[in-house]
Amino acid sequence: xxxxxxxxxxxxxxxxxxxxxxxxxxxxxxxxxxxxxxxxxxxxxxxxxxxxxxxxxxxxxxxxxxxxxxxxxxxxxxxxxxxxxxxxxxxxxxxxxxxxxxxxxxxxxxxxxxxxxxxxxxxxxxxxxxxxxxxxxxxxxxxxxxxxxxxxxxxxxxxxxxxxxxxxxxxxxxxxxxxxxxxxxxxxxxxxxxxxxxxxxx
Length: 202
Fold this sequence. Notes:
Number of domains: 2
Oligomer: single chain
Radius of gyration: 31 Å
Structural class: alpha+beta
CATH architecture of the largest domain: Beta Barrel
Strand order of the largest sheet: 1-2-3-8-7
Helix content: 25-40%
Number of helices: 8
Order of helices and strands: HHHHEEEEEEHEEEHEHEH
Number of strands: 11
């Protein structure tokens, strides 16, 4: 005598759900396939692809598809600002760090990092800033070119000699740096350690 336990019938009636989508569709009567909406077929064949697309979007680095940032800026250091909570590094330049000191042509030490902050703050002077970028650094700061109208902040700071062209990132401001060198502006009026080298020694 065959004994059928209460759970056996339930398991056999739902066991087809463990089959792949295509196999489950083949189990349906032809009449049901004709009359029923094709929702199950759609989910079987397209939903996995949609899941892959969504997963790929979620896994994209935050540097992709970053919109322009516009507003009043707070100066954090000589090459970094903040607009509406978004921290932004100015593209293609590097300024002395806040605690960094440099020397005049007579050898006197001065706070070149603080002077870079003052120069950037004076340049912005409570005006609206627009930044455009699509990359982020290791600290997740947006790397962007920032403007007041048509004035490029990075270019202006390099022209005043308060920052240098960061050629590891871009050659955009090499000409501006050459002009500052020629006129002995800012850092070029004395001696200084490039900011990236100073950071390595800290």
